[in-house]
Design a protein that fits this description.
The structure is a single chain. The protein is an alpha+beta fold. Helix content is about 50%, strand content about 15%. Helix 3 packs across helix 4 (about 75-90) and helix 4 (about 75-90) packs across helix 6. The chain is elongated and about 80 Å long. The structure holds zinc ion (2 copies). One zinc ion (ZN) binds next to strand 11 and helix 15.
Length: about 400
C-alpha cells in the first residue's frame, strides 16, 4: 500500500501543462485502467469484510451502513459498492475482463443486473455475455442484456424492486430506484392523473417543464395521502410532516428574501428550510408550542391546536370553492388556507384574512411572485410589479 501511495503522490505532482495531447490521452487510458483495477480490488475487500461481518463490531446492521458512515458517502453509493463487490465475486469472467481493460464498469453493472435476474442461468451464459460486452457499445449491450433477462428471468426477479430517497446537501433530496412493471404502471398512471387534472385547471401562469410537473405531482400525491383521514396510525398517531420553527425566526422571516435559509426552521429529514417555506408550512398547520432552554431541552409542551379550525375551513370552501388564484380552479383537496397577514404577525384566522390556494399558487405567493389581498371580502391578486391579475372571463377584452 505504501508503494501505491508514493505512485499516487507522483501522479499528483505531474505538471500536466507541459504534457502533449498524446501524453495526456495515454495518461487518461492508464488512469481508466487503474480505476478498473481499483474497483475490482475494492470489491474483493468489501466482499471479504462482509463475509467476516466486521461491521457488527461497530454496531452497524449492514456493511453498506458501516461503509456510508466510515467514508461519509450516501447510503445508495455505499449500497452500490457492496452490490458491485458481490457481483464481481460471483462473476469471475466479468471481473477478469474488467481488470484487463476489455470491459467498462458500466458494462459490469449491466451484467450484474442480468445476474440478479437469474444467477444460475447467468453462470452458464457468463462467457458469452462478457464476450458481447467486449465488442458492443453500452447502449447495444443494454438491449442484449434486456433480451437475455426477458428469456431467463426467475419469477422472483419480476417482483424485485427498490427505491432510494437520499437527503442531499442544501436541503434537497435525490430519488433513485428500480421498479417492477406493476409499480411502474401505477406510478406513471398516478403522475399522469395529477398532470391531466392540472392541465384542466387552465392555469395561465403555469410555465413548468414536464420534469418539474412530474416532481410536483409526486409531492401532491404523497401530500394528499398524508392528508387523507383513513390512514393507518403509527404509535397512536397518523404519521405527519413535522416542521420545527422557532418563534423568533418566524416573525423575522415575513420580509426575508425567499431563498434565505432560516436558521430556526427545520424539516427532520432534510434540515434547514428557507424562511419563505417556513411561513408557507406554518400558514395552516397543527401547532404545538414547546418552550426550550438554551440547550434545546424542552421545559414545557403546550396543547396542539389547529391553526384553521374545521368550521372556518368550511366557510372558506363555500366562498372560494377551489384555488382562488385567477383561472386555477384546482380542487379543495389540493389547497391550503393561506393567511394574507400571517398569524405570527397578528393576522386573524378569519374569513377576512384567509384565501384558499393550491400548493403551487401558495408557493408563488409566499415567494412574493404574486400578492393577494381581500377587497370587499373577495381575494384580489396582483403581479410582483403591482398590476392587477384578472381571471380570463373578467379581464377587459
Ligand atoms: Zn400561506
Ligand atoms: Zn392554484
Amino acid at each position: 500500500m505504501s508503494t501505491l501511495r508514493s505512485a499516487l503522490d507522483e501522479l499528483r505532482s505531474t505538471d500536466i501543462l507541459v504534457l502533449s495531447d498524446e501524453q495526456l490521452a495515454s495518461d487518461l487510458d492508464e488512469l481508466e485502467h487503474a480505476t478498473r483495477v481499483f474497483e475490482v480490488e475494492r470489491g474483493r475487500r468489501v466482499a471479504e469484510l462482509e463475509r467476516r461481518g466486521a461491521y457488527a463490531r461497530d454496531g452497524h446492521l449492514s456493511l453498506a451502513s458501516w461503509l456510508a458512515a466510515r467514508h461519509r458517502v450516501e447510503p445508495s453509493t455505499a449500497a452500490g459498492h457492496v452490490r458491485m463487490a458481490r457481483a464481481l465475486e460471483a462473476m469471475p469472467v466479468a471481473a477478469e475482463a474488467l481488470v484487463s481493460g476489455d470491459v467498462s464498469s458500466s458494462a459490469i453493472t449491466l451484467l450484474a443486473h442480468a445476474r440478479d435476474a437469474s444467477p444460475d442461468a447467468f453462470s452458464r451464459s457468463e462467457e458469452s455475455l462478457v464476450d458481447a460486452a467486449r465488442t458492443l457499445s453500452v447502449d447495444h449491450l443494454k438491449d442484449v442484456v434486456a433480451r437475455w433477462r426477458h428469456d431467463h428471468a426467475d419469477d422472483a426477479d419480476e417482483d424485485r424492486q427498490e427505491l432510494f430517497v437520499t437527503p442531499t446537501l442544501g436541503g434537497r433530496g435525490r430519488l433513485a430506484g428500480d421498479l417492477n412493471a406493476e409499480t411502474t404502471q401505477v406510478l406513471v398512471t398516478a403522475l399522469r392523473a395529477v398532470q391531466d387534472a392540472e392541465v384542466r385547471s387552465n392555469d395561465r401562469t403555469d410555465t413548468r417543464s414536464p420534469a418539474r410537473r412530474r416532481a410536483d405531482a409526486l409531492g401532491e400525491i404523497c401530500r394528499q395521502w398524508l392528508d387523507s383521514s383513513g390512514r393507518p396510525t403509527v404509535a397512536g398517531e397518523r404519521p405527519h410532516v413535522i416542521v420545527t420553527i422557532d418563534l423568533e425566526s418566524l416573525g423575522r422571516s415575513e420580509n426575508a428574501p425567499g431563498t434565505a435559509r432560516s436558521a430556526g426552521a427545520r424539516l427532520p429529514d432534510v434540515g434547514a428550510i428557507s424562511a419563505a417555506h417556513a411561513l408557507m408550512w406554518s400558514c395552516d398547520a397543527q401547532v404545538t408550542r414547546v418552550i426550550t432552554d438554551a440547550a434545546s431541552r424542552p421545559l414545557d409542551v403546550g396543547r396542539t391546536t389547529r391553526i384553521t379550525p374545521p368550521w372556518i375551513r368550511k366557510a372558506l370552501l363555500v366562498r372560494d370553492k377551489s384555488c382562488a388564484f385567477p383561472d386555477c380552479g384546482r380542487p379543495p383537496s389540493w389547497c391550503d388556507p393561506h393567511h394574507v397577514v400571517h398569524w405570527t404577525n397578528g393576522g386573524p384566522t378569519a374569513l377576512s384574512n384567509l384565501v384558499l390556494l393550491c400548493r403551487r399558487h401558495h408557493r408563488l405567493i409566499h415567494h412574493k411572485r404574486f400578492s393577494v389581498e381581500l377587497v370587499d371580502g373577495l381575494p384580489r391578486f396582483r403581479r410582483a410589479d403591482g398590476t392587477a391579475l384578472e381571471a380570463a372571463d373578467r379581464a377587459p377584452p
